[in-house]
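ingest -> validate -> predict -> emit
validate: passed (alphabet ok, no gaps, 345 aa)
predict: started
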Amino acid sequence: MRQLFYVSPQVLEWREVADARLESDGDAIVRPLAVTRCDLDLSIATGLAGWPGGFAFGHETYGEVIEVGDRVAGFRPGDRVLVPFQISCGSCGRCRRGLTALCETVPYRSSYGMAPLSGVEYGGGLADRLRVPFADHMLLHAPADLAPEALAGVADNVTNALAFVLDPLRERPGARLLIVGGARGGIAFHVIQCAIALGAEKVVYVAQDDDNLHVAKRLGAETIQMELRPDTPPVGPFPLTLDASGHDDGLAFAIRCTDYEGLCQRTYGDFVPRTPTPLMDMYGRNITLKLGRVHARAHMPAALDLMQRGCLCPEHVITRRALFCEAAEAMTDPTHKVVFVNEAA
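emit:
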């Protein structure tokens, strides 16, 4: 079968590999039909992440079940499904608590399309076949009334975006949210949609780039155009802030804009061991800084519910549609969100 591999910065290539096959009676084999590019994928593909090459690529996957093991009860060949990007068993103590990103059964950070994180190659969504262990737990039935290109991102970025605001807006109904944008990618724009759907009084998006500001405004956010520097004065304050800027000045600005007892979050960790953080600003105003990987499988049903109610439309963030055969070139497209469609389907 064919599988897309990340080789080195700006270089991805299709390779012929052995067919993915059932390895236990709880497995399923899925044929990927649509795969969206995660924001992290762009950082890896361009070399920003600094990851070593030679691993299968793609992890936001919508597909069709083509084979199931004897113990799989909830799925059968022909079912359209979503495949969460993280591998989890569903039965360990952490999974039962909803902490599916920290499954105790598999190696730490086990994921599709990101073998360097766990040291285990699970394959990637940009392939002809994908093995899904713990299939009855892992897979979700895809709603028939939603388009594949809208659904694929639920496997990671769309659900991650929802997780940033779901609990905070339950705890602070109607709270105002500031998003510090600037980095390429779609997650900040999904957050705008999710926050508005969940009742945020106002969502404000700050960035310098005209294109980012245009997309944010189209999705319903108020926008402020400014260059972020170490001494950029704050706006607000806001009870909820989110740094999606991709640089240290953006994080510091988000913290300065966070209100007393407020919550500041970041959409990513970092690609360096240490990140400057203005603890003095945080300490004086009792600010909480939170970041971490989404528990994708646990939160995906909530994202699907918003989509089925027409409150969340991930397809509005997509900027390019490409075939699988074009993925090696299109993966480094500088626009916000790319979807790849399997031409064999």
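The first strand starts at residue 2 and ends at 8.
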